[in-house]
Design a protein that fits this description.
By secondary structure, this protein is mainly beta. The protein has two domains: 173 residues, Immunoglobulin-like, CATH 2.60.40; 172 residues, Immunoglobulin-like (Sandwich), CATH 2.60.40. 6% of the residues lie in helices and 40% in strands. It has one helix and 23 strands. The strands form five sheets. Strands 11, 14, 16, 17, 18, 19, 21 and 22 form an eight-stranded mixed β-sheet that branches. Strands 1, 2, 4, 5 and 8 form a five-stranded mixed β-sheet that branches. A five-stranded antiparallel β-sheet has the order 6-7-3-9-10, with no helix packed on it. Strand 6 and strand 7 form a beta hairpin.
Length: 384
């Protein structure tokens, strides 16, 4: 009987001990509320202002009054990374609702940056009974946080730096972050996440300028703006050949440009040496029919001069490029010693379309019979 009493007494003592252990154990969960915790930065560059978006997948619901966020140089520390600045942090509610999906539910959450200088900010539910959160995806976003610098948390790494943020949810208002939460019954759950700042990577390249100018031949009997060429050209000659008095002859060149010049290009044409005969004083003048100029071209008319070598033979040119706006229809301007624009563009050109220059030459009865030649040149000038 005494033995039985001793056993009964011992059982009672064990029961009391177990009960006392249950009473003093902190009320904690196994991070069901902060499961899968992560943080994403809108701009991870060191020293830049960024938004920090925390995401959790909660498997349970719980009434929470406060959530603390402690920026730290180590996983278990409370030393703020030196360059982190939380003083201007704001809480982005994201249109908080009570659905428990997306942004944290509740409409009264407010940020507290009182301890921002030590790396600690928090949000308060604004309700003495707390706010029920959980059972879904939760998002908490802070804006206006200045990122830590390289080497704030990791020494010896020049390209990036990984720091820590310790998260703590409190059941009641305490306005404090507990560095040893296992001893505090007010702490519901804790989690630690990392974020990495990086050095910006400068990407550079230089695109070399390119320019190709191509002069191509035009066959005889080619129709250009209703003008039919009389003779085929070559790349280096405009061979009018034998010219009968009172008969106009036409020869043409095809011009194309390929360039990446940002401001385009201009191609000009001019007579470097006037067309002259083998006899001194014989020459062929630039076209001036109907007082034509390059700025005011006119339809072709026969030479009107009656004194040898004075408007008794003319050479002129017609251009097809619409960017040379003075020309229309079958108008011609003088081929003279001035560099006159025959082709232009205000931007790059892939060379897929070309323009033509049609040259006309005619002599009247007063022009001396002779063999005439001159030198014509093109200038192709890009503007980068």
């Amino acid at each position: 009987m005494k033995q039985l009493q001793k056993i009964t007494a011992l059982a009672s003592m064990v029961a009391l001990l177990v009960m006392s252990l249950v009473v003093v154990a902190p009320v904690r969960a196994d991070n069901d509320l902060l499961e899968g915790a992560s943080v994403a930065l809108s701009d991870p560059r060191a020293g830049q202002s960024s938004s920090y978006t925390f995401t959790f997948t909660a498997d349970v619901s719980a009434s929470i009054e406060e959530i603390f966020f402690q920026w730290a140089t180590t996983a278990s520390g409370v030393t703020k990374p030196a360059s982190t600045n939380l003083a201007s942090a704001t809480f982005n509610s994201g249109g908080s609702s009570t659905t428990g999906s997306g942004f944290i539910p509740g409409t009264n959450w407010a940020i507290d940056t009182t301890n921002a200088g030590s790396g600690l900010i928090s949000i308060d539910a604004g309700d003495t009974n707390g706010q029920v959160i959980g059972d879904g995806t939760l998002t908490i976003q802070f804006d206006g946080i200045t990122n830590s610098a390289i080497t704030d948390c990791q020494a010896g790494v020049a390209s990036s730096d990984t720091c820590f943020i310790r998260i703590q949810t409190n059941i009641d208002t305490t306005d404090t972050f507990d560095t040893t939460p296992s001893d505090n019954t007010n702490v519901k759950e804790v989690a630690t996440v990392t974020y990495t700042t990086i050095q910006a990577v400068t990407v550079s390249a230089t695109v070399d300028p390119s320019f190709t100018f191509v002069i191509s031949t035009v066959a005889a009997a080619s129709t250009i703006d209703t003008i039919s060429t009389t003779v085929a050209s070559t790349v280096t000659t405009l061979p009018f050949g034998n010219v009968s008095v009172g008969t106009v002859k036409y020869v043409a060149h095809d011009l194309a440009v390929t360039t990446n010049a940002n401001s385009g290009y201009t191609v000009t044409m001019q007579m470097a040496t006037q067309m002259a005969g083998t006899y001194t004083g014989n020459d062929i003048d630039p076209y001036s029919g109907s007082s034509a100029t390059w700025a005011d071209p006119k339809d072709w008319t026969s030479p009107t001069g009656s004194t040898a070598n004075t408007d008794t033979a003319w050479i002129g040119a017609h251009v097809t490029d619409a960017d040379i706006s003075a020309f229309s229809g079958t108008e011609f301007g003088p081929v003279n010693g001035t560099a006159n624009a025959v082709m232009s563009s205000s931007g790059p050109d892939d060379g897929s379309s070309s323009e033509q220059v049609v040259y006309a030459l005619e002599a009247n009865v007063y022009q001396p019979a002779d063999i005439y030649s001159g030198t014509l040149i093109y200038y192709a000038t890009p503007t980068y």
